[in-house]
Amino acid sequence: MITETTATSPVVAELERIIPLVLKSKGSSTLIGLEEKTTDTILLNIENGIVELIRGLTGKNTEKHKYQECFAKLGIDDITDEETSHLPSSAVGIIIHYFLEGVKRDFNITFEDEPVSIKGRGGGAKKVADKARIINKKQKQDIVDGTTMEFYKGDIDKGIITLPEVLAKIQKAYELKSHLEECGLILSAKKTDGVLYQGINYEGAGKDGEKSIAEIHEQEASKLIIQETKNKVAELIRKGIIELPKQERTTPSK
Question: In this predicted model, which residue has the larger pLDDT, 215 or 166?
């Protein structure tokens, strides 16, 4: 018997029920010590295209190489300084940064301490945190909607995505939403709500004679809460624990 997969079908209902249980039963992670006093050297022969990309991501100019020119050689013109400001400023740091992200993603292996080579460029995490916002309203809604089966129904019906793939995406969205909420964000399912912050009083916001949410966020007490939340999120980004959905951007005309 073939069960039709719709937003109200028993299959969907069962998946919605077991997802939180799946998240709670995830395998344990492995924590490894760095043994900082012991180091070794690895010589790498790397293709020029990868080398140019690494140099670009460092955001650093040298006598021989300008990082924007390295991007240009690869035809890349839409990576901004803001997007790379949390990355290390050395080639070794870039390689180690993405190596650590990879082994955490594939094997759930992390290290007790942060390697010296991946320290952010002059407080890179803080640079990310000082930007105007963490995520915009559309990104917030995509994260929240991504935790529901209904969000993927159209692609399921068209055969674009399988149920196991949907489960993986829902799990990832749940984890990201949980991390952001633990940092202090309020991610409401209401499409009319923007990104709000725990600890800020929004009672009466936007009503006649009351301050708008934007005005509330400009209050000094609110700014402190918002900055603390941004710092926490930036730290998770720097450690590779979370990755925020990309904001839509336009490619500069040539």
Answer: 166
